[in-house]
Amino acid sequence: MRVLITGASGYLGSRLLSKINKKKYSVFGVSLNGKGITKSYNLTSVVSITKMIRRSNPDCIIHCAGFVPTEQSGYKDSKKNMSNEIMTRNLLELTSCPVLYISSMTVYGGSHSGPFNEYLACFPETAYAQSKLDGERIIKGDGRGGFAVRIPGLFGLPRRSGLVHNLLMAAKNKADFYFPDTPILWSGMHVEDAADAILNLLPKINGRFTEVNVGYSGKLSLTTLVDTVNELYRTDIRVELEYPYFEFDLSRYKNLTSAALPNFRDSIEKAGAEIDK
Predict the structure, then answer these.
(1) Which residues does 94 contact at the CB level (< 8 Å), separation at least 6?
(2) 133-170: buried (b, 16+ CB within 10 Å) or exposed (e) per residue?
(3) How many independent structural domains does the chain possess?
(4) Domain residues for 205?
(5) How far does the chain reach from its first CA to its final CA, in angstroms?
(6) What's the confidence (pLDDT) of residue 207?
(7) How far, in Å, CA of 40 to CA of 126, rounded?
(8) Residue 151: φ, ψ to 5°
């Protein structure tokens, strides 16, 4: 099977590119900058995508490319997030193969207490979340097979930023940590675990287009993260606000793959150990 991975030099895409079984799949990785072993193509350009498809001739696409906010203001930037929809439409216009589309937990919004399953109505609260949900709907409306993989926020090296990394550094250095001043909805997953889970879905990609949650079992929140770090590092970092919990219903993923997912505590311990190397 020939697999095209978009955004293959990015945080998640690069992990997928390195982990995919190259004996089983013929892999073609693309990115805007052509970094590393990826080829440079601009997915907002029909001309560029036409050349890419002729060269790769994919049997399926793992679509990771897209605008990913690095700060809170980016989630509300409609113009930048519009590029996510443009790239998806261009891919669909020039291909007919199944798509494994990387979506986000943010499509659900915060209007439900959870656990969140794929049958629930979605109420995205930011331009980023809306762009991810629009991408899902565009692919489903096109009538092709595949998955919309709804993942939480990712952490782990080489990323040296974000709540998990900064909290771990504060715990290791016995330093102060400054929490968000609003009760944000948070959940996370180690990028290695997310890549493994996504690739577990790849052999099932030829079915109808289906939404699939991927994450850790149980209720997670910023408070859960702090409690876990305190337990691992014997620190006493205090949370002043009451942060809401987020919980995935993972039944569909487990039924599709029969694969066990790692647990949250082990993933935080792994992220901490990586920093020490």
Answers:
(1) 46, 49, 50, 53
(2) bbbbebbbebebbbbbbbbbbbbbeeeeeebbbebbeb
(3) 1
(4) 2-276
(5) 36
(6) 84
(7) 30
(8) -115, 155
Q: From the CB of residue 236, how many other CB atoms can be counted at a distance below 10 Å? A: 8
Write out the DSSP string of 156-199: -TT---HHHHHHHHHHHHT------SS-----EEEHHHHHHHHH
Supply the CATH number for residue 53's domain: 3.40.50.720
Could you give the CA distance from residue 122 to residue 210 in angstroms, rounded to a whole number? 15
How far apart CA 147 and CA 106 sit, in angstroms, is: 17
What does the alpha-carbon distance between residue 23 and residue 36 come to, in Å, rounded to a whole number?
20
Cis geometry, peptide bond prior to residue 152 (ω within 30 degrees of 0): no
Structure tokens at 222: 């910023």
Residue whose entry in the numeric block shows the structure tokens 């590393």:
36
**pLDDT band, residue 68 (cuts 50/70/90):** confident
Distance CA 198, CA 193 (A): 9
User: Within 13 Å and on the Cβ side, how many CA atoms surround 69?
Assistant: 21
Tokens of 223: 């408070």
How much is the pLDDT for 72?
Answer: 63
User: DSSP character for 96?
Assistant: -
- Mark residue 5 as left, alpha or beta (left: phi above 0; alpha: psi -120 to 50; beta: remaining): beta
Place of tokens 């311990």: 269
| Mean pLDDT, all residues of the chain | 92
At 122, list the tokens: 């979605």
pLDDT of residue 70: 61
Tokens of 87: 């790239």
